[in-house]
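Notes taken during the Thursday session

The instructor put the following on the board and asked us to keep it in front of us for the whole hour. The protein is ArsB/NhaD family transporter. We were told not to look anything up and to reason only from what is written here. First, the residues (422 in total):
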Amino acid sequence: MSLQQIIAIVIFLCTMGAIITGKVHNTVASLTGAACLVLTHILSIEDCIDAVDVETICILVGMMLLVAVIKNSGIFEYIAIKAAKIAKGRPWPIMVIFILITAVCSGMLDNVTTVLLVGPMTLAITNILKVDPVPYIITQIMASNIGGTATLIGDPPNIMIGSAAKLSFVDFILNTGVATIFVIIVGLICMYFIYGRKLFVEDEAIAKVMQLDENKAIKDRKLMHESVIIIILVALCFIFHDQLGVQSCTVAIAAACIMLLIGGQEPEEIISEVEWPTILFFIGLFIVVGGMKKVGVITMLANGLISITHGNMVVTMMVILWVSAIVSSFLDNIPFVATLIPMILTMQSEGMDVTPIWWALSLGACLGGNGTLIGASANVVLSGISKNNGHPITFGQYFKIGFPMMILSIAVCSVFLLIRFA
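Then, after some discussion, the predicted structure tokens were revealed:
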């Protein structure tokens, strides 16, 4: 290893260690790591700019602005009350409904957008029921990543894989979509034993929920109607963005601008609602991972991964599935997937059937995000929303549930892939 590679690895490990232990604020840790890479001349300012995934940042900012306007209509409280009444105020059915809502929406929109929508809903209903929202938040984090795995547009790695492998929306539904159905079923069974049997709500609170009138939760009916229309249009634009010739980030920013124009809200108040610490955390994290990529560490990892399989399709498929899952629990999956794509294309050019390997990469990279609190964008965003509302989730608290559940979901996917392709 070169000196630059050693320095980049040390900076990365120190940054991750600070985040994992919680001794330093996530944003401070990631930005400090980024600054160290510049000070040690591993990255230039231009390299830092190149390392940041601008599309992801724009989607985050755009959807945060959009949600900040929409929530003033009262639509989240309306949906939360409606869902709670359908579940008869019982805490476990409410959790199941929110898990399913999150998973489905994450496939149709993207998982970050979805958690921005369901987070306020969850906090609203748990506040009414006087129950701890943390179990609900944790299950929704996992549901968002599972749902995002199901479709071409649900998670950025899928967009990258679909583009490189020429795979369609339907291809994803028939492969990763089917796999995630089994993952959701197994996940719900596990969540019942982890949380379902322990959830308790006073009869008084249930009666209070059932007496609520969801229509009274609507603060601005005109804004709510506008919001519903914009949400539907955003969903359609995300689904058909290729045909429309626009990027997902363009859709998010455009939707935010439209809502700021027609929503009648104070721009200063809406802009202040954006989770700026989260945005800066992502920028710093992209730069820290970009340092690893610049000095060739991620490429070395990918090359080593391919070489140990000796070209055996089944072995390669399983190795990529499991390694992608473990790595994506701690590393941002976008640069990792970006590094593996050329490797898989090279294997394809040598005559190997790589179709199963694309699905292994998608399932591993996307579901691996459930392993830790920093494993995916949705995790950071939703845990940030929870913290800002007085319910912090620590790295260790999430890890005890998320990592075993991630391992179980990858085991389910292993069986699926072996039956499907072996």
